[in-house]
Amino acid sequence: MKKICPKCGASSENTDFFGSFCSSCYLKKTDLKFPKKFLLETCKLCGRMLILSAWADYDEEKIHQLVASRCKGPFESVGVFLGEDSVKLTFNFKKGGSELSVKKALPLERKVTTCPNCSRKSGGYFEAIIQLRGNRNRFPSMQEKLKRILEKSTFISKIEELPEGIDLYVGGREDAKKALGLLGLKPSSSNTLAGERQGQRLYRTTYCVRL
Description:
Number of strands: 13
Distance between the termini: 82 Å
Strand order of the largest sheet: 5-4-3-8-7-6
Largest sheet: 6 strands, mixed
Shape: elongated
Radius of gyration: 28 Å
């Protein structure tokens, strides 16, 4: 059955329709919103990305989800493709037995920088020291377990092998404490004054683990 668009008078014999309107008129009256551009900031040292104000492992699927969440309109779904210098969007509409796909693109700005963790790590920054003492045969496996946990949330700026054991210099004090707890370790601890910042004293904590 032939349709006539009530907006422009176009016929379904000459153009595609979506519902009662031709595709062109439907899109003109549809309030479709999407970002003007997208900034992708990554760390040149560790490869992580800045997403939602936090640094995380690079994950293109998370980028797709973030871009899609910023698109608004009566579409059923939106496909996201990350190109070298643009983000391509495909909006899919459905209404009754009609289907319509619309393609859009927005500029992709890539910014390469150094994340705070890598910046601190390169400067030798640390807030805690985990000391492994006791049975030396257990040091290698415990060191690897600690590294796997710590590197998910912070960094290890230095590892020292000493006659009495191994010292791991950890970027975040709370991260060190949490890692020890996850492994069921009960260390002794002591604090050392490291300096002051904006009138507040800064301390470094040493956790001594006897294996």
